Amino acid sequence: MRTVLRCLPAVGACALAMGFLALPGQEERVTMLLRDGKITEAQQTLETLYRSGDRRPEIVLQLALIEDEAGDVAQSIGYLETYAALRPNDAVPLQRLVELYEQTGDTDKSFSAMERLLTVAPSQEGADKLLSLYRLLGHRDEEESLLRKLLYTSYISDDGLERLGLLAAGTGDLDVASAALMRLDGQSDPKKKSHRILLFQVLIDQRQYGQAFDDAVRWSAKWRDPASAVEFVLAFARSNQDELAREFSHQAAAAIRDFELTAADALQRHGHTTSARQLLADWIVLWAPRRPKQIDHYIGLTASTGDIGGPFRALRVLAQRPGQEKAAALLAEGVSAAYGPQALSAFRSFLTPRILRERPVFAAQLFLADGNLMLAKYYFALSDLRQVFPEDRSAWLTIAEQVDPQGAYKALIHAWKSGTLPPEFQQTLAELAFNQRDWGLHNAVQRAGNRKNVRLADIKR
């Protein structure tokens, strides 16, 4: 705007003069004065016309522009206000009014002019500016009112949609809140969480549990975030939607490892013990755990819910279900570790050779406890050192010393030569080689261990 005003003698005056060319008398004189750059004389002529009651928009606007260029803000505002009343749909002078009001600190008139400008020439930039001022000055009602007007337009930003969702939810208008947040969900970055978590809570408050479930599953698959997924589970549980809480936990586990266990723990800690028990019961028989740590966590959680018998019931089911031999063996091993081998006495008939072969080290432990050295040695011989879990390696060594030291020695040698010997077994192999007077192997293993220790020391330094 200031650029236009600075060019007034050369361009603005000539352009405005075109409007007066056909006018007689003083209007013709104004045209010539503006064309010749005689701004002061043109201003005097225009003021004479204005004082005589002439309120033609062209005259009023030219007076406003001349006063603005001269730096007389108060006079310029007065003329622009008159012009805005005559031509309410002219956006450019209205924009200048906003700037002058801001310059003089007249907040109320600035707001009013910005609101009119947004109606005349709507834009996201204008809407954002007005909204930010409302928020800065604490005009919450005006902010919410404007956001509501913008909801179904293209002039509302993502921040505006989230803000409207928050404000509307705070006042209990869940329909507007969900409309704003659902629109935002459909167009914003899939990784953003805050407004989607708010939308989920709004849907729960509206009792739109199915929609909340579908959205939560979709979001969790992308976020892979246990914390937000737990909040979804607890929200369902608080709303007495226990079945949805459990089903969501199963669905989320496809993206979040062991999520059922995490969810069961959260449900138990927040007083939803029945849901936690049922979720654990579903998990152990439906998802067939494959790692000892999963089983240990599961058994600990069942104990915390007071369901000591849960693992035993699950063991009976898994042991009789084809294809679940590994899960049954892991569970039996976990029960034995938690409650002692005697706890399995009533279930030994279910632990078939097919199941026990899935965990041969555990099977050897069981038969050692029975005093059956022959079967202990048989199952121990089935163990593959490469498939022994790290947490089971000390048990493997302990049993090896009891049932088949020579066989264990051969297995360690084979793993050493094939390059698959776990590091923690190297010292054991060196000691066994020493006892067997296999000096070459002993020295080779020791040298390898020393080289590794040197490298680690170098790294630490």
Structure summarized in a few sentences:
Residues 1-24 and 453-461 have low confidence and may be disordered. 36% of the residues are buried. This protein is mainly α.
Give an account of the 3D structure.
There is one protein chain. The protein has 461 residues and is mostly helical. Among the domains are: 1-116, Alpha Horseshoe (Serine Threonine Protein Phosphatase 5, Tetratricopeptide repeat); 122-206, Tetratricopeptide repeat domain (Serine Threonine Protein Phosphatase 5, Tetratricopeptide repeat); 382-461. The chain has helices at residues 2-6, 8-17, 26-35, 39-51, 57-70, 73-86, 91-104, 107-120, 124-136, 140-150, 158-170, 174-187, 194-205, 209-223, 226-238, 242-252, 259-269, 273-286, 292-304, 310-319, 325-339, 353-356, 360-370, 373-381, 393-403, 405-418, 426-435, 439-460. The two termini are 67 Å apart.
Characteristic terms for this protein:
461 residues, mainly alpha, Serine Threonine Protein Phosphatase 5, Tetratricopeptide repeat, disordered N terminus, disordered C terminus
Instruction: Name the average pLDDT.
Output: 84
| Strand runs, count | 0
Broad structural category: mainly alpha
Continuous helix count: 28
Largest sheet: none
Share of residues in helices: over 70%
By CATH reckoning, the class of the domain at 1-116 would read Mainly Alpha
Beginning-to-end CA distance, first to last residue: 67 Å
Query: Ranges with pLDDT <50 over ≥5 residues?
Result: 1-24, 453-461
